[in-house]
TrEMBL record:
GO molecular function, one term: metal ion binding
Coiled coil: none
Name of the protein described by the UniProt record: methionine synthase
UniProt key word Metal-binding: yes
Organism superkingdom: Eukaryota
GO BP of this protein: homocysteine metabolic process; methylation; tetrahydrofolate metabolic process
Amino acid sequence: GEAEYRGERFKDWDCNVKGNNDMLSITMPEVIKGIYQQYLEIGGSNMIGTNTFSSTTIAMADYNMEAYAYELNYYGARLAREACDEQTAKDPTNPRFVCGAVGPTNRTGSISPSVEDASVRNVTFDELVETYFEQVVGLVDGGADILIVETIFDTLNAKAALFAIGEYLEFSNLDIPVFISGTLVDQSGRTLSGQTGEAFYASIRHAKPMCVGLNCALGAQQMVPFVERLAKVVECYMHVYSNAGLPNAMGGYDDTPEDMAKYNKVFFENKWLNMVGGCCGSTPPHIKALR
């Protein structure tokens, strides 16, 4: 409930924070680390994403928590780092890696929030770069091995994130792998900003990612034709982490671990992918089934 989200530190916060899952890295770290551990131990994950999908000043403005963006990223990554290191220590032949999750924010650089005026924007490119730069600093300071710009439905936002990552890596003289993951919003096979998977890849390939792929919005079964097309143009490693099917009328996901494994099998039979995982609705047993 609300009290659990707030914890002692934010017990007198001036607005409701229930639903701000990222802040649990600060107020309930044992819960977040426990979730990381379940994916590593039960699921057998080689990589886990950090609890930082919305840990930007832009997204945190909904909760008046802009000032905590760096801290949310730092602890989201730090808890994942601890969980991965503990698991790796049990079996050094199977190292586990932390993917610093960089989400899309809740504003879009190329899409108008107004149905009356298509020219309106509620965020600038420079504002996106600034918010992403702070996020990346926190993730790397917290111990992320990889940075993944994920659930991309507006390519301009992704370009801002990739620009911020490039600036930070150059400034800090670091070389950290970058993954990029687009989201095709429905069976049209296009992002919300209108691009096919192939056009999306053409827009971001300059960033020289280690891995490119698709996540969210669709189940693995619905992704098949789009993965096939994208695999023909991608020049780096490729991944998919689908939802556990399409959401049902109650907002839940119906694909069982066995379903998800069956639908993902086609990707590997056709040698389209190098990595696979799970997004909305997937659980540690889903990940275990994919192995």
